[in-house]
Design goal:
Elements lengths: L4 E4 L2 E2 L5 H12 L4 E9 L4 E8 L1 H18 L15 E10 L3 H18 L4 E5 L10 H5 L2 H8 L23 E5 L4 E7 L4 H11 L4 E2 L1 E2 L6 E2 L9 E2 L6 E8 L4 E8 L7 H14 L4 E7 L4 H14 L8 H11 L10 H4 L1 H5 L11 H9 L7 H24 L8 H36 L6 H42 L5 H26 L5 H36 L1
Parallel strand pairs: 5-7, 6-7
Antiparallel strand pairs: 1-4, 1-5, 2-4, 2-5, 3-4, 8-14, 8-15, 9-12, 10-11, 13-14
């Protein structure tokens, strides 16, 4: 069963006092079962955003402790800051990451809100997906009037908290807290080369979903338009799922458009960046860079990098690292402070510390292979050779895409290079999987067999591990054979100056197929399911023959191209 992971992103109203921030964040760090991902304090906003992840129970435990400590150390009666706020802990969302549904996450958010209201005597409002009424879904509606407005608002029936006190005198020091479950949200700020907050706000109104108040005649001073029910009419902005406001940041000496992107699948970060650039330019303003508050999913950065590469008419079949770099540099994510992908991309932060064989240096990989340990062995080497062939193939695809005079064909070769990258990733993973498969067999043989039941369990474990040790090299064979078809295409259509490189790639791919075939054969002899064994061996033999035939065809075509170009 997949491990349940929930992210929590509490925002508390202190961004200047490092000692207070440290004491609050310590509550998270000292909670077992959660991983602190990021702490992002803002001096001008006087607000700190904390991001941590873990299984649901440890996460809501850590969140409760943080809210409690913030209530002890922050006095909202004296608090001031640029960012809208209504409490010591202003907002505390839970976000489902993996293995857990939104419905389950909602229930955990309600448990947390109830506990905070009852045990800490803090007014709590359920918002977003957890909201008790439609008008409470939007955080801006709940927070309207901010802390100062609570004195009149909290006693109204419409704005009675879901949990906790409904009298302002009881929460004078702590304020109120919004708690709920939501989809992944990106807090994103774009920097402008102006000091005018009014101009920044104008751009924010241009793009945000809510837009601006509709007026008759003059957009700024004209009569406010109302519908038949007397409600103010709003003119929507150009982007859905975007909340935005303009403000001046004293410590940077610039204005920013501060945004929450609430659905990055429909409105991705790169689309937002380009839209702001366009609207700013129309107003004589230039975007100088941007910043992320908190973390961002890997796919969002990859989508952005690929988008900008396509705009440059460049191949997207480059490494993950290069794609992220393009996104980072294009959006100017390091203008204000360093943007470290290992720290700011969520998947990079929560990945296991286990080092992959492919993470080793070439020398270390060679020495690890040469050691007395039987793994990594021939299976891992076959997969690695295949990945080298894929790397060479991808290189030629990228070189062809970037070849002078072939500008009208860049996309054709970009697609081929992208496919090559997929083969690289697959084969790299198989390097480790082959070694893991061998180790699983060894572990199975070490199982106890003192009783008949234990003997039966051991044999089943050995057979399961053996089948896996057959299927892994079969996957190497299949992937490397598919790679050969891509190689053949590039021999025929790719940059003729690099045809010898794809010839070498073909030799690598063929060696990967034949090497993996040997591993299928040797592991199959210990597999007792005769019918399935024969089926797997037949499949392997067929792929071996095809690889040999493909190699000859590719090398013949390679030599022909070389001769014709001389």
């Amino acid at each position: 069963m997949e491990k349940q992971l929930v992210e929590c992103v509490p925002n508390f109203s202190e961004g200047r006092n490092s000692e207070v921030i440290k004491n609050i964040v310590n509550e998270v760090e000292n909670t077992d079962g959660v991983t602190l991902l990021n702490v992002d304090p803002g001096k001008a906003t006087n607000r700190t955003v904390v991001t941590f992840v873990g299984e649901p129970i440890p996460v809501i435990t850590a969140a409760f402790k943080l809210i409690k400590k913030a209530a002890e150390l922050i006095n909202m009666e004296t608090h001031q800051g640029e960012h809208p706020r209504m409490g010591a802990t202003d907002v505390c969302p839970l976000i489902p990451i993996s293995g857990i549904s939104m419905e389950e996450t909602i229930e955990y958010s309600k448990k947390l809100a109830k506990k905070v209201g009852k045990e800490l005597n803090i007014s709590t409002y359920l918002y977003e997906k957890s909201a008790s009424a439609n008008y409470r879904q939007n955080l801006a509606n709940i927070r309207e009037g901010e802390y100062e407005g609570l004195i009149n608002k909290i006693g109204q029936k419409k704005w009675k908290p879901d949990f906790g006190p409904s009298e302002f005198q009881q929460i004078k020091k702590t304020g109120a807290t919004a708690i709920g479950a939501r989809d992944f949200l990106i807090a994103y700020n774009i920097n402008l080369n102006t000091t005018s907050t009014r101009r920044a706000n104008a751009i924010a109104f241009d793009i945000r979903e809510k837009g601006r108040i509709a007026r008759q005649g003059n957009k700024l001073t004209g009569k406010i338009l109302k519908d038949k029910n007397g409600q103010t009419i709003w003119q929507p902005g150009s982007l859905k799922h975007v909340k935005a406001i303009g403000w001046f940041i004293e410590e940077y000496g610039i204005t920013q458009i501060s945004m929450n992107l609430t659905n990055i699948k429909e409105t991705p970060i790169h689309k937002v960046f380009d839209e702001v650039c366009e609207k700013a330019e129309k107003r004589g303003i230039r975007v100088t860079g941007s910043e992320l508050v908190g973390l961002i999913p890997l796919q969002a950065m990859l989508d952005a990098g690929q988008y900008f590469l396509k705009k440059q008419q460049r191949s997207i079949g480059v490494s993950e690292k290069e794609i992220i770099k393009i996104a980072q540099k294009t959006m100017g994510l390091d203008e204000i402070q360093e943007f470290n992908p290992n720290e700011r991309i969520i998947e990079y932060r929560i990945k296991e510390n286990k080092k992959s064989l492919c993470d080793l240096t070439l020398v270390d990989f060679l020495q690890e292979t040469a050691s007395e340990s039987p793994a990594p062995g021939g299976g891992s080497i076959a997969a690695y050779i295949g990945s080298l062939g894929a790397a060479l193939t991808t290189m030629v695809g990228n070189l062809s895409s970037h070849k002078r005079g072939w500008d009208d064909r860049w996309e054709e070769f970009s697609l081929l290079a992208e496919k090559g990258q997929e083969y690289i990733v697959t084969l790299q993973k198989l390097v480790d999987k082959d070694t893991d498969a061998f180790n699983q067999i060894l572990s199975s043989f070490k199982l106890s067999e003192k009783t008949e039941e234990e003997k039966k369990t051991k044999q089943l474990s050995i057979q399961k591990a053996t089948l896996n040790a057959i299927e892994i090299p079969l996957k190497v064979m299949q992937t490397s054979l598919e790679l050969m078809h891509l190689i053949k295409t590039l021999v025929q259509k790719g940059n003729p100056n690099s045809v010898s490189d794809v010839g070498v790639a073909a030799l690598c791919a063929r060696s990967a197929v034949l090497g993996a075939h040997l591993n299928v054969v040797i592991n199959a002899k210990d597999y007792t399911n005769k019918k399935n064994r024969n089926k797997l061996l037949e499949k392997a033999d067929k792929m071996k023959k095809e690889a040999i035939a493909q190699e000859k065809s590719i090398l013949d075509a390679t030599l022909k191209t070389i001769k014709n170009s001389s």
